[in-house]
Amino acid sequence: MGKILLVIQREYLARVKKKSFLIATILTPLIFPAIMGVFVWIALEEKGNQSLRIIEVIDETDLFFMESSEQYAFTSSVEDPEEAKKMVQDGERYGFLHIPKLDLKNPKGIQFYGVENPSLTLMGYLESALKQKIEDQKLYDQGIDPKVLKEIRTDVSIQSITLGDEGEEKINDANVNYAIGFLAGILIYIFIFVYGNQIMQGVIEEKSTRIVEILVSSLKPFQLMMGKIVGIGAVGLTQFLIWVVLIGTLSSIVMGVLGMQMPQQQAMEMANPEFAQAAPDSGELASILQVINGIDFVTLVVSFIIYFLGGYLLYGALFAAIGSAVDAPSDAQQFMFPITIPLIVAYMGLFVFILQEPNSTTSFWLSIIPLTSPIAMMGRISYGVPFWELALSMGLLMAGFLITTWLAGKIYRIGILMHGTKPTYKILWKWVKSSQ
Amino acid sequence: MLQIDQINKSYENHRALTDVSLFVPKGVIFGLLGPNGAGKTTLIRIINQIIEQDSGTVQLDGRKLSPDDIRKIGYLPEERGLYKKMKVWDQLVYFSRLKGLSENDAKIQIKSWLEKLEIGSWRDKKIEDLSKGMAQKIQFISTVVHQPSLLILDEPFSGFDPVNAEIIKNEILELRDKGTTVILSTHRMESVELLCDQVAMINRSRKILDGTIREVKMSFRPEVFQVAISDLKKDLPQEWIPKFANDAWEFTLPLSGKTPNQLLSELMDFGEVNLFREQIPSMEEIFIHQVKAAQNG
Questions:
Q1: What dotted CATH number matches B222-278?
Q2: Three-state SS across A187-209?
Q3: Which of A56, A190, A374, B215 has a CB 3.0–4.6 Å from the CB of A96, allowing a cystine?
Q4: Smallest CA–CA separation between B188 and chain A, in Å?
Q5: Domain spans of chain B?
Q6: What is the pLDDT of residues A224-264, one digit of tens each?
Q7: Does B44 touch chain A (CB under 8 A)?
Q8: Above 0.90 for ipTM, yes or no?
Q9: pLDDT tens-digit profile of B17-27?
């Protein structure tokens, strides 16, 4: 045990003391708020500098009255479409909306002319405005008073509340759950790949420089392998914790500074242009906070750490085994397949199934099978997962980790002393089976 | 000291060691000889407990080899390396602590070794900034720093210039004189003759000879004498192929069943015997002869 600690210590210090570690650890969290800051700043600048865009409308039906917004103004100064097109070309108008005589039951042939491609936002805005006008017109034709129409229009939003076992109520928001599941899943995915690769590189370094021959005359190959995996894992955790602290502080500073320049409501309009039209819900922020309060953070954090470590250890052992079998990093490619595939399946599953339907059968199995569960379960967890599923998944992850470590240990102890052979899966399997 | 009995070891498609037995007494330098692929490295790895033998036993100081013995053994592999990015000092501390030294003992030992080899100024340098010979010195220190009672050196002089090789050679002799047992595996027969007290030779997985250098040489002497005669009284037989050089006739003559004294008295009849010396083979000649003999069947 003492020797494993020595290896852990060396692996940890050798990496943490590197300049590149320091730079990556400090710069990465700076990049996030910096990017966020830049986007918000650009958006603010654009909004400030943007001149009002004037759109010429020729409405041959005389039914539509386009309401101007902050960005777009609508005029009807000419009658002839050709004239209007010329105005657009001359730059007098941003665009030209041509509404020909049309059948309300089948409104086709509305055209928009512009010198540049109109943004999706503009098209969406025009389409929804026209759609509403046509619908209103149809209702009116059926004899419904426009006043009544206005009163009918209501804004509905459903608040989702889950009932706990003891009847306690929790307010949910699929968006918040999605964001948390997404972040946690991606983090674990990246962590496994980045630090798994470091394990592999480290093993290859020791093997190719023949340090390993001296090392294994001092301690058991298994101790060496475990020391390396745990030491590098500790580096990853350290980096992660520093990031959490740094990103947290910096983000709140950046948001705090920007928040003072921009009223909350405006910020939301920026983030989602539809808010500009819909009556802004002043309680939105409060309800998000309420949702966040409703999430069981203890379970979330504890599970994150368990899956984070479990997944890393499970794959870390495999990365170590691959590193031990090859002579150079370029030879490792052929064995990466069995590692990459389940990780990518889990990653794709996260988007295709889990975040969409966290309780479907596919989601369930993805979050139970140890090779995919670290990523998949983290995607589900903020939606709430029954305790027995969590326990089963974690139990299997532990078992999976023990199996891969056992397998890897067998390959490792032979692989690190083999030089000049190009191993195949068949040879690896022989190593696993052989007693020495 | 080290007793190896009937060791066998096979890999998947070849035998590495067949019934190899060796006895290495305390405080000697023991030469382990043999061509590449003979099984030397396998034997060394077994003594180091890196791999396990299929059958047979290894005893150190009268007891079966156990993981605790790692502390007593120092191993310098033929193919060796150090962490390139690590500092000399950190590296030595790491290796010696892996061998079981306490941090304090490690520091004391490393300090005295660095001073002894006059390389104290390197302690904060990274290995990648050192020359190959310098790195070899560090490697040597890492092998002996935990004061092993058994030192296994595989081609210890490769990579050294003659000056540094001499320094290392003297360190090895000094360790031997202090009671350390040294197993020296090498192809360089001149260092075998110079350093080794005893040798064993392995070829094609089997031990083919062992003993002290003198014993080995005596058992392989071809019983041929070198002779030089001047002031001839009568003609030398042509089949001896005599050559005239340095005012004397020189040739070699096998004993052919006679004792050296009988041969000498016969020779005295031909003239003045200036030289009469038995030809003793060098270790190199024995080595090559043995390997070739094994190849021919």
A1: 3.30.70
A2: HHHHHHHHHHHHHHHHHHHHHHC
A3: A56
A4: 22
A5: 2-218, 222-278
A6: 999 999 999 999 889 888 887 887 787 677 667 766 555 55
A7: no
A8: no
A9: 999 999 999 99
